[in-house]
Amino acid sequence: MRAVLLFISHASLLLLLSDISMAGNKELVVTTIKQDPYTMAKGGPLEGYCMDLLSELAKKLGFRYTVHLVRDGAYGRMDDNGNWNGMIGEVTRGEADLAVAPLTLTAARERVVGMTKPFMQTGISILLRKDSAQEESGLFDFLAPFSTETWVGLLLAYLLTACCFCLVCRLSPGESGQSESEHNNFTLLHSLWYAAGALSLQGAGPHPRSGSARVISATWWLFTLVLLSCYFANLSSTQPRDSAHLMIKGFEDLANQDVIEYGTLAGSSTLAFFKNSNNPAYRRIYEHMERRKSFVASMDEGVQKAKDGNYAFIGESVSLDLAVARYCELVRAHEVIGMRGYSIVTPLGSPMLKNLSVAVLQLSEAGELAYLRSKWWASSCVADGGRGSGGKGHGLRGVFVLLAVGLGVALLIAILELTARARSRAQEQRKSCCTVLSAELSQRLRGGGANRQEESAEKNKA
After folding, report:
1. Among residues 311, 313, 309, 314, which one has the least CA distance to residue 260?
2. What are the backbone dihedrals phi and psi of residue 380, each rounded to the nearest 5 degrees, phi first?
3. Which residues on adjacent β-strands are paired with residue 121?
């Protein structure tokens, strides 16, 4: 008995290998549908996510293939007579050996064709204009007009400016005092307070007297004025432009309003999901779409209607993510329902089915599918969906450069002022200018007390 079972198993294995070898020797006919970015024709051979996936599978399994677009331009739906159209129909009729496209794995389809392990997970979500989608307000939304890099740069600029104030006022003879009763008001603590006062447009006295310190003060005021103008402009742009415009967060909000029209692709598995659902909100969505006939004929039409405004397009989340990556005024709702997968279709009982499933899993484990996703879904929009775009690092780079130049010029002027004073004192004391300048620098950087005592002693002698 055991020998008979081994013989039958061996014969079945040989038959399977023979079928696979025959499939590998002949050129497989692959049907697909034109949909960006899965399959695209741009004046040359077909390209896209599905074409790259098909190429990787052919390398792994060693088969040759030719690709053609489905004749009726449909994915596959059964009519009242039980006949299938689209890519599913071509496979069932033997007109194609494989269908490689974003075909959703469903029970109805798997009854008539073979479907591999999903090569991409997706679900159902909502595509809207950004002014129709509600974002959760956060505790720190007031920071949104500027990026993190800009806030860090602002903090560093504030500290650097205060330190430069303190240093310049120590170096400049105009700030160190000309008599015993006068002293340098710009300590590090007061410099920090003075810079903070200018940043809030309040001002804080006393004000600098020397030309070098006034250069820093004027530059910092200009920096503050430009920065605050950008902040308030970007803060106002993050507010809703029309307070009466209805906000949509998910399917419950969509079902409970009648201001924004919504619809989905006619004859799609997304429509079937709402039609067969027992969820009251989903049923209301289906009945609304059926009553208003708000279906669209293609994905492109749905995206265009969403761009035009006052329309929410319900579709596959991965397809909606592509639209969001291409059109910056659109956003996809966070809620995703009805998770399902895209699979490759083979004829029912095909020996290629298991091998294709294993190859798909291998590509997933190797990170190839994730790479293809990032390659074909690359976004052309700026980070944060363009919120506060004027306050990003590139928009304020010039004013930071201006501040750095102003600080550098002020330090140079302070050194020139101190050098001029050192030359004058060197002539009076008949000493080398370098010696007097070095002594001045040492005294001022250590603190102004020793310098003022020396000045007072010289005046008393005089």
Report:
1. 311
2. -100, 5
3. 341
- Any residues with CB less than 8 A from the CB of 384 and at least 6 apart, and which? 144, 147
pLDDT in tens, 420-451: 777 777 667 666 767 766 776 676 666 544 44
- Residue 411 near residue 397 (C-beta atoms within 8 A): no
Residue 241: which H helix or E strand, with range? none
Q: Measure Cα distances from 87 to 114, 124, 151 in Å.
A: 13, 22, 53
The backbone region for 213, taken as left when phi is positive above 0, alpha when psi lies in -120 to 50, beta otherwise, is alpha
Rounded to whole angstroms, the Cα distance separating 53 from 103 reads 14
**Would the pTM of this model clear 0.70, i.e. be above it?**
no
Distance CA 238, CA 231 (A): 11
217 HSE (CA, 13 A, CB side): 21
d(CA 234, CA 239): 9
Cβ of 395: how many Cβ atoms within 10 Å?
A: 16
Backbone Cα Rg of the chain: 36
Q: Which residue, chain included where needed, has tokens 């659109």?
A: 330
Q: Pairing between strand 311-316 and 120-129?
A: antiparallel
Place of tokens 């204009």: 129
Q: How far apart are the first and last CA of the chain?
A: 128
| 313-346 per-position pLDDT tens digit | 999 899 899 899 889 889 998 899 988 889 999 9
Secondary structure (3-state) at 337: strand
Measured CA angle at 393 (ends 387, 399), to 5 deg: 120
- Could you tell me which residues come within 8 angstroms of residue 275 by beta carbon, excluding any fewer than 6 positions away? 286
Beta strand spans in 329-442 (E): 330-332, 337-347
Q: At what angle do helices 317-326 and 299-308 cross, to 10 degrees?
A: 50
For 344-369, give the secondary structure using H, E and C.
EEEECCCCHHHHHHHHHHHHHHCCHH
Cβ distance 419 to 408 under 8 Å? no
